[in-house]
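Worked problem 6 (solution included).
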Amino acid sequence: MRGLSTGLILTATAAASPFVYTLPPDQYREAVDYHRWLNGLHFAGAALQLAVLAALVALRAGPRLAARLRAPRVAAMVLGVVFAAGLPVDAARHWVLLRYGMSTQGWPDWFADTLKSAAVTGALAVVLLPAGITLVRRWRLGWIAAWAVATLLAIAGAWAAPVYFDPLFSNFRPLAESRPALVAPLAEVCRRAGYPVPPSRMFEMDASQTSRAVNAYMTGLGASRRIVIWDTAIQVLTVPQIQTVFAHEVGHYAQGHIALGIAAASAGMLLAAWLARLLLRRRSGQPIPLILLLLSALGFLSEPVANSASRWMERQADIYELEAMQGLVPDPGRNSAETDQILSAIDREDPEPGPFIRFWRYDHPPVAERMEFARTYRPHRH
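Solution. The predicted structure is:
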């Protein structure tokens, strides 16, 4: 099943009310089915990963492997088993993206990117996981030290991601080179908001090489901070609509949401380090499968908490956007709602997510809520 073309989607949504997320009946059904697939695969993947790690713990795979191998090799083998077990779920997700017309990436390229991502994260885990376990076991306050090191690595990772990791999977160009006509309108948004984002920190990503989805995001930390707009979004939006998307990302930038995210992650890592200390005091032998099971369970259970915090930050960025757009367009609320309608229709956003899915899975407020908020918001700027 292939989705309707972007042109047909835009034609269908242009006549819709700017404050109510609407889809034609066939697209409505496809959007609901699409998200049922994605949600089901998400929970199936989490359950499978936990089951595999629990089985490895029950089989005492860690101590058995440790009798013949050093800790980094044990970590590599356990991570390899988890990766292999989860690969069918990852492939199923890519099949869903292809079936509903959201991916433009062929299977060989998808598999290469999947291996590349696993190799990068696996290489880090193979070094850091045994080192952290050793630190916790050999020093009474080692769990505090492990937490501190993990927090520092999270900060370093946030800085390094747009510079070293993201370019492994996509191409980025400064907006001043790829779309110079957009720089002045976006600089005007910054002027109105009172928060400068220099052109050197505005980038375009060639998302169309792998996806039909549309997006923009803020990333990086310190000198690596930047706002990235996908080429797929630029291709379908007017300049005022691109300005409102950009203003939302400036809101994340100005309100320090990356730093807030790191602080929240650090709190989670402190809990994980403390629980790991308790487990390691009660267990002898190689505990790598057990620690991975702990981290996976905590990661899964923390999803609704992290997503609730993310929804709050997105709402703050929405407010910032609506304030910043005052004076740039006649009706910022209408402009924002129309932009949400276009982007969400292309992305096949679920028109009516259930309460549980919204609670557990949504890191943004559902699009209908965002459009209603744009309609009713009363700006402070005059």
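Discussion: Residues 25-58 form the longest helix (34 residues).
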